[in-house]
Design a protein that fits this description.
Layout (H helix, E strand, L loop, with lengths): L3 E6 L4 H12 L2 E7 L2 H13 L4 E5 L5 H15 L4 E4 L14 H29 L3 E6 L12 H21 L4 E8 L5 H14 L3 H9 L10 H12 L10 E4 L7
Parallel strand pairs: 1-2, 1-4, 2-3, 4-5, 5-6, 6-7
Helix pairs in contact: 1-8, 3-4, 4-5, 6-7
């Protein structure tokens, strides 16, 4: 490839921002997609100011048409398209007794629907461009084992592993690989919010809430977004060309399989 182009959803902060910056270091031009245009614009400016090649796009991954439009816009801007990272997601705290139709439908629309639309849009574009590509989906440690109080989030992340395996088989003939990454407890604003809600529900302090998720990490520390970005870097690069349908754990040693 004369030019490597990657599109990352949910790129305005946290893991998505770290992935965008890591892929920039790997030589990619990056399209940054987010619901809040100002957030992805800020990340794009930082990347461009440091010699990278980034472009901000506003889109809601729950909206199929907006995902397809984002992929089209990125391709027109950069002239090619090679990798999509379906990273965007939400993580409501939902003990089973608190699950409502609105919470369930909204979470699945973003976490699962956004991945499905991303796979559709990317594979269609790879076909149009007459070359293969890489599709990388965000699952989770919570998509490998059930975590209390995360009924809806866990369900969406288990589903992403299934979609990853299914579409990997469907798209392999077209030289398109589909893999997922499964972070553990990552120090991000979203994780802080989850831990606070778990603690509040139990009448405990914030530190107790974080401990419920981090106490079983073998390496003894929370993950940094950059740790996850390194895993995505591998999945986006040539060293993973013979890998498809896999969901890689990058959790510091929480789940062993």
């Amino acid at each position: 490839m004369s030019k490597k182009v990657a599109l990352i959803t949910g790129a305005g902060q946290g893991i998505g921002e770290a992935i965008a910056k890591r892929l920039t270091k790997d030589g990619f031009s990056v399209a940054l997609v987010g619901r809040t245009k100002s957030k992805v614009e800020n990340v794009a400016k930082e990347i461009n100011d440091n010699g990278g090649d980034a472009y901000a796009i506003k889109a809601d991954v729950a909206d199929r048409d907006e995902v397809f439009a984002a992929v089209d816009e990125a391709t027109k801007h950069f002239g090619d398209f090679n990798v999509i990272v379906n990273n965007a997601g939400v993580a409501p705290t939902t003990p089973i007794s608190t699950v409502t139709p609105d919470v369930l439908n909204n979470t699945l629309a973003i976490n699962l629907g956004g991945v499905v639309w991303g796979i559709q849009a990317a594979s269609d574009k790879f076909h149009e461009l007459n070359h293969g590509g890489k599709i990388i989906n965000a699952s989770s440690q919570a998509g490998q084992v059930g975590n209390p109080n995360l009924t809806v989030y866990g369900a969406s992340k288990f589903a992403i592993r299934g979609v990853t395996q299914t579409t990997a088989r469907e798209l392999a003939k077209d030289n398109i690989t589909v893999n997922a990454y499964c972070p553990g407890i990552v120090k991000t604003p979203m994780m802080d919010d989850i831990a606070k809600k778990v603690a509040d529900n139990a009448g405990k302090p914030f530190e107790w809430g974080m401990e419920q998720f981090s106490k079983d990490i073998a390496l003894g520390r929370l993950s940094r977004p950059e740790d996850v970005a390194a895993c995505v870097s591998y999945l986006a690069g040539p060293d993973s060309d013979y890998m498809t349908g896999q969901s890689l754990l990058i959790d510091g040693g929480m789940v062993f399989s």
